[in-house]
UniProtKB/TrEMBL annotation:
UniProt-recorded name of the protein: Sulfurtransferase TusA family protein
Short name of any one Pfam family annotated for the protein: TusA
Annotated organism of origin: Candidatus Cohnella colombiensis
PROSITE patterns, A to Z: UPF0033
Source superkingdom: Bacteria
UniProt xrefs under Gene3D superfamilies: TusA-like domain
Annotated ranges, domain UPF0033: 7-31
Membership in a protein family: Belongs to the sulfur carrier protein TusA family.
Amino acid sequence: MNSNKVLDAKGLACPMPIVKTKKTIAGMESGEVLEIHATDKGAKNDLAAWARSTENELLSDKEEEGVFKIWIKKG
């Protein structure tokens, strides 16, 4: 999946992946896609819930070798 920006949140524990995602996506234009890489097992569910509670859209997620890759489109 194509993204406009990649956020490396590997090694960060909750709530830092969400904090960094929120800060990064705030500087992006509506419709742009942020790709987040995280190793915290809770990040996938936390980011999905965060996207639902904001005007952003979780497009996709997958796990590769212990790294969660999550794509969120800015609303």
